[in-house]
Recover the amino acids of this structure.
């Protein structure tokens, strides 16, 4: 089965009743975990973005605490998992402020991580890539926000 275009889906949804739309949303939420997470964000967390960001930061803290530090292989694997989750949460929000905030937080956690990431060129590359992405997200923000985030970004660049 080939999926139809977004326009066709939108047109079809316009012809459905309120009850049918609710049933479709519930079916989507049962089908895949990401759909359920996105619906949770849209229904419960989109109204308070700061609380959403704070909850993600707390979750990231927990994940960093659980990293197996016996070898850099396990560290890299865990860091990639954390970054994948952060990117997913950024995708849900689609706000550049959220993207900048979470990427800067990830970089700060990675920089402060023990053992130091400087012993692993791959982790240094991940760190530098995320700093560049954060800088790109910051450049699209309002000037006042840019200044605040760039101060934090400069600290992370200087400490490399």
């Amino acid at each position: 089965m080939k999926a139809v275009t977004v326009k066709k889906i939108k047109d079809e949804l316009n012809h459905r009743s309120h009850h049918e739309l609710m049933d479709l949303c519930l079916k989507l939420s049962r089908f895949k975990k990401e759909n359920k997470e996105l619906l949770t964000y849209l229904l419960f967390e989109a109204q308070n973005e700061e609380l959403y960001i704070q909850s993600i930061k707390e979750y990231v803290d927990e994940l960093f605490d659980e990293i197996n530090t016996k070898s850099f292989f396990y560290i890299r694997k865990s860091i990639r998992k954390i970054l994948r989750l952060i990117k997913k949460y950024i995708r849900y929000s689609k706000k550049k402020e959220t993207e900048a905030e979470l990427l800067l937080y990830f970089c700060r956690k990675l920089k402060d991580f023990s053992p130091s990431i400087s012993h692993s060129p791959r982790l240094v590359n991940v760190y530098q890539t995320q700093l560049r992405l954060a800088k790109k997200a910051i450049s699209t923000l309002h000037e006042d926000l840019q200044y605040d985030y760039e101060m934090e970004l400069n600290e992370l660049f200087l400490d490399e």
Observations:
- The first helix runs from residue 6 to 14.
- Helices lie at 6-14, 18-31, 33-45, 49-65, 72-93, 96-111, 121-138, 143-158.
